[in-house]
């Protein structure tokens, strides 16, 4: 438990992002690697947005949700990556208090929304496979928009609570964040007041979101598996379940890292572990998602081929 701050300390108005404390040569190497990954993220997710927009065959609920997934991946990587790249090369590793709060708010908003959106995507696959005759009604355009809006609203509520609790803490004297962006475990660690309530709120909110969304996902796939096993032909079972393989991969990557980062109280006391896991969900996952959906999805691959053929035929 932390003691009350000494009155001689002044309130913090800016933070210093320590990032990865390594030799200058390694810093340059990491900068090049992170820059390359971020470029792949931008190109991959924008390409996915463009392909889904252009090809009318992809104007279905499944790809409407995928388009929002690409948008969220692009947003939350952009919230963190530019500042991360800047602190690799710059001696000035400062970020103002307000910018730190804004970065944390938008990052938390995008990540929280993505968690709910992945649950919505599981429900979409459940409706398509288990209730094909009701699918057009259940997943109408209005229903899809409402589900996406609900995901954003839930993500926003989570972000407001997290930001409100975290930045109601007092930071006096110590302003060095042992992280490469403003994340809640690093902020809690340097606060000069008792943070037990904040840690409990972080754990409960994270556990609530993960439990709720994974329950929807697991129940949806339990029904999907039951339906698929009733299909008589092996080819039919394989073809039906292949439509879910990309989503299962993305869910496993996303929730695996979120669980280890936020749903375990011990993660707060391990900054090096936090940074490694944070690299995975701020850069690696947003890079992999469009690759997973483009390389393992026949509809997307066919759409890309058709667009490229049009470019060649009509230069």
What's the helix and strand layout?
Elements lengths: L13 E4 L6 H31 L6 H29 L4 E3 H34 L4 H4 L2 H26 L9 E2 L6 H7 L5 H34 L4 H29 L8 H25 L2 H16 L2
Parallel strand pairs: 1-3
Antiparallel strand pairs: 1-2
What does this entry look like structurally?
The chain is mainly α. The chain has helices at 24-54, 61-89, 97-130, 135-138, 141-166, 184-190, 196-229, 234-262, 271-295, 298-313, and strands spanning 14-17, 94-96, 176-177. Helix content is 75%, strand content 3%. Helix 1 (24-54) packs parallel to helix 9. The radius of gyration is 22 Å and the shape is globular.
Give a quick precis of the structure.
The chain has 315 residues and is mostly helical. Helices cover 75% and strands 3% of the residues. The chain has helices at 24-54, 61-89, 97-130, 135-138, 141-166, 184-190, 196-229, 234-262, 271-295, 298-313; strands at residues 14-17, 94-96, 176-177.
What topology, given as strand order, has the largest sheet? 2-1-3
Task: State the total count of DSSP E strands.
Answer: 3
Quaternary structure classification: single chain
Question: Overall pLDDT, averaged?
Answer: 85
Number of helices: 10
The termini sit apart by 67 Å
Q: Calculate Rg over CA atoms.
A: 22 Å
Strand content: under 5%
Helicity, in percent? over 70%
């Amino acid at each position: 438990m932390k003691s009350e701050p000494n009155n001689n300390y002044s309130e913090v108005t800016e933070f210093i992002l320590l990032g990865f404390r390594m030799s200058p040569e390694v810093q340059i190497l990491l900068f090049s690697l992170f820059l390359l990954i971020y470029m792949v993220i931008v190109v991959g997710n924008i390409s996915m947005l463009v392909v889904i927009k252009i090809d009318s065959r992809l104007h279905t609920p499944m790809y409407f949700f995928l388009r929002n997934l690409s948008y969220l991946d692009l947003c939350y990587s952009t919230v963190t990556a530019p500042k991360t790249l800047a602190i690799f090369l710059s001696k000035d590793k400062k970020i103002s208090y307000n910018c730190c709060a804004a970065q944390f708010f938008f990052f938390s908003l995008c990540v929280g929304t993505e968690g709910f959106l992945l649950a919505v995507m599981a429900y979409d696959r459940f409706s398509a496979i288990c209730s094909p005759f009701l699918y057009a009604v259940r997943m109408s355009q209005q229903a899809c928009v409402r589900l996406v809006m609900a995901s954003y609203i839930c993500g926003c509520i989570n972000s407001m609570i997290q930001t409100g609790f975290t930045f109601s803490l007092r930071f006096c004297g110590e302003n060095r964040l042992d992280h490469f962006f403003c994340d809640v475990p690093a902020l809690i660690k340097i606060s000069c007041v008792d943070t037990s309530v904040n840690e409990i709120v972080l754990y409960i909110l994270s556990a609530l979101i993960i439990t709720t969304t994974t329950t929807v996902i697991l129940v949806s796939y339990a029904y999907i598996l039951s339906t698929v096993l009733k299909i008589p032909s092996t080819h039919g079972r394989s073809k039906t379940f292949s439509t879910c393989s990309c989503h299962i991969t993305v869910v496993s990557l996303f929730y695996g890292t979120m669980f280890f980062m936020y749903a375990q109280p011990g993660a707060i006391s391990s900054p090096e572990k936090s940074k490694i896991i944070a690299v995975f969900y701020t850069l690696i996952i947003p890079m992999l998602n469009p690759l997973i959906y483009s390389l393992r999805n026949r509809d997307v691959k066919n759409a890309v081929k058709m667009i490229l053929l049009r470019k060649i035929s009509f230069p």
